[in-house]
Amino acid sequence: MKTRIFAILLALAPPGATLAQEDAQLIGDAERGEQLFRQCSGCHQIGPGAENRAGPHLNGIFGRRAGSIEGFDYSKGLERAFQDNMVWNIQRLNLYLENPRSLVSGTRMAFRGLKKQQDRDDVLAYLRSYTASPQDIPESAPTARKREVDLPPEVLEIVGDRDYGEYLASECVTCHQTSGMDEGIPSITRWYPEDFVIAMHAYKQKMRPHPVMQMMAGRLSDEEIAALAAYFADLEE
Amino acid sequence: MTLNRRNFLGTGAFAAATLAAPMVRAASHGKPKVVVVGGGAGGATAARYIAKDSNGEIDVTLIEPTRMYYTCFFSNLYIGGFRELSSIGHSYGKLASEYGINVVHDWAIGVDRDAKTVSLAGGAKVPYDRLILSPGIDFVDGAVPGWDLSTQTKMPHAYKAGTQSELLKDQIMAMPEGGTYVMVAPPNPYRCPPGPYERVSMVAHVLKETNPTAKILIADPKDKFSKQALFEEGWQKHYGGMIERLGPDFGGGNVSVNADTMEVNIDGEIVKADVCNVIPAQKAGAICDAAALTEGNWAPVDGHNMQSRMDENIYILGDSSNQGDMPKSGYSANSQAKVAAMAVRGSLTGSRVFPAKYSNTCWSLIATDDGVKVGASYEPTDEKIASVSSFVSQTGEDADMRKRTYEESIGWYAGITSDMFG
Ligand SMILES: Cc1cc2nc3c(=O)[nH]c(=O)nc-3n(C[C@H](O)[C@H](O)[C@H](O)COP(=O)(O)OP(=O)(O)OC[C@H]3O[C@@H](n4cnc5c(N)ncnc54)[C@H](O)[C@@H]3O)c2cc1C
After folding, report:
1. B-contacting residues of A 29-68, CB under 8 Å?
2. Domain FAD/NAD(P)-binding: where (chain B) (predicted)?
């Protein structure tokens, strides 16, 4: 993908744009970034048709004003960044990916951070391919996530009983923190309910490998999974 | 079973009983009162959940003698040098200030089940509508001849964390070069099945660094033990030649000690110990006996809700309870506490009661970044809490997976302690 984008950039580049092209190429390996981005995809979508989930969609993130997507319920931290007129440039995104809370205290993005510069570069290269010129390139591969497991529509349509979800969730929060902290054990708060349901069924069907989660999900009924999804979707810190 | 709103409430004898007697009012006509004895994995969780979920409709009193609770979980990691002792100490401040729990630092010394009061060492009597007991373990008298509580300073058990853990660690650090650490392991059932073996791993880890010619000897009354293949593989890999275990075939079950001479008699053979870690046979916390709620060493409960089989107003959680297949672990106690909290609330305020589900996972650290785990999920039957599915780490796993397992345990520790203490 990297080589293709670079080639297309060259073809489209106006005269005198060599420097910019080199910068674009130097960010990192977008293909590897796409792999790494799976960690982010529980909360963020990117690519054609990307929508806001637990986190805002990331199309056009380079140069976007922080906290600026209409209708998305930002944390206080990002609202502050918006007021401060913070714009996502490569340096800020780099810092944010390294440790979200060190750049925006109070952000809900409870991600442990990518500690290696190479990993951050590669993810940034991937994000970059959906901002500015690359997004207009027709050949650019669609990256909207495919569902991991196929579920009948009636399973996805179950409206979870939030109270029951709250009781069932008491089992989850022995390990997963309600604050959304993401250390050793991933955060499960504020997921888009459908993503939550799909992930749990993926464990249940043993498509996802983790034995504890396979065991936990394995004994949950469709209704129980929906109840948990409903509870965690709007859990506040 | 597929659950829906219709059959939530219809499942199990207990749910029916709850429906039959909602909205119990306290004798004093005030708010219903719940008293929790023991602020550990079971008690702190139960107190917090009842206070948090009852929206002020229930008065919760937590009776716990210590001001700082040191978790047994991760106390072995302290011995191994992976944690500071202060990092496993937790205070009750938030339970009082954020959840409005009345935290009383005292010992419960008796329960008057007719009058429904708990008497405290300080002289007070605390009334309850429902009582939750989660006092952990005490030791069986005479289980290891020559050892009793008066010798626990010379031969620490470190099976209640805090001072005992510190003592054991200091003794290990002060071992002479090439000295011998002896562990007298407990018979089943006991608190934390992998606990003694995780401890041996952690002791080996520090000794390898500070005193590599030292030896570890385990006298064990059990034929086999939790995660045995994983521990043995790890010991071979990381601490080759340092650890020896004598099972019952080699007299490991026939042990007496002499704390004055620091001698351990294993089936007639005398071993001189530099450190002797005696973990005696265990029984329910003494308050369960005092309240006449035990049968043998443990307190029998109904697995649907953790209610004592001897008194419907009393619930018994964690290590003290005889519930069935769940191991005596912090994770189990925490899991049971949530079921009991829901049942207690339901019986006092008529709040919704859902069918019980329980689970457990126990992580153990074998060496730096080498973590393993075992776990199971459980459901109640009329006889007991029964295991329904389980998993265990595999031997030969790659280093990355073992490291992730260890990192997971750190996440779990943060999760469970905030679930207990807020
Ligand atoms: C070395 C070791 C390692 C362990 N590792 C793990 C692990 O990795 N994972 C895991 O899940 N579990 C682990 N455990 C087990 C875990 O610590 C216990 O199973 C758990 O603490 C049991 O909870 P509990 O509520 O029954 O008792 P406790 O947590 O012991 O709480 C009992 C409380 O009651 C108080 N109390 C006792 N009597 C009275 C009284 N009469 N009046 C008032 N208060 C009283 C005590 O002061 C104490 O605070 C480990 C245990 C040990 C020893």
Report:
1. none
2. 33-147
